[in-house]
Amino acid sequence: MECTPYGMRVHPTEPVSYDDGNLFLKELREAIGLSFPFDWYTFRRWTGNEANRSHIFEKYYNDDLIPQDVQSVVLLRPPQIELLREAAQMHRKGDPDAPQDLTDDQRRTLCGDPYLTGLRRERAALHRQMRFGGKSISSATDTNIHQRYSELGKAINRRRQKLRRKGKA
């Protein structure tokens, strides 16, 4: 960057430093009236998002990046080519085609389970007991009631997961 009588301009042969570039981009953003951040990080993030959206990384780099099952070489095990192929094609957040919600049959199973209903009733009673007198739940944190309340929450989640698995089978 160099200062001229007409303002800042990029030097024809010297590279722009990161900080100078960010200052230049900030001035440009203000001059054109953009409200969102406009810096090198934004460009990197946009480029990465576009590459992920268009599957460029998987198409051109991923196959070359991991050509061998490295774990099998290190652990002296036979290669698991199919597993490696599936892992290379997985997205960060799992399978986008996986169901995101329960089916109606699964909902009926969860709502009609007497054990789960009993756990929920007991937890609701503890909740009312902790909230008696306008207190917050966090005020009862180190009490036996709160400990039981937390245990019941975990038990409810475990039971729901068990019923979901049973409903899918």
Number of extended strands: 2
Q: Nearest-angstrom radius of gyration?
A: 28 Å
The sequence of SSEs as H and E is EEHHHHHHHH
Strand order in the largest sheet: 1-2
What is the oligomer described by this structure?
single chain
Q: In percent terms, what proportion of residues is strand? A: under 5%
**Termini Cα gap:** 65 Å
Average pLDDT number: 76
Give your account of this protein's structure.
It is built from eight helices and two strands, in the order ββαααααααα. Helix 6 packs across helix 8 and helix 7 packs antiparallel against helix 8. By secondary structure, it is mostly helical. The protein is 63% helix and 4% strand. Strand 1 and strand 2 form a beta hairpin.
Tags for this entry?
mainly alpha; 8 helices; two-stranded antiparallel sheet; 169 residues
Structure at a glance:
The protein has helices at 18-32, 40-53, 56-65, 70-75, 81-89, 104-112, 114-131, 144-168; strands at 2-4, 7-9. It is mostly helical and 169 residues long.
Question: Which SSEs are present, and which pair or pack?
Answer:
Elements lengths: L1 E3 L2 E3 L8 H15 L7 H14 L2 H10 L4 H6 L5 H9 L14 H9 L1 H18 L12 H25 L1
Antiparallel strand pairs: 1-2
Helix pairs in contact: 6-8, 7-8
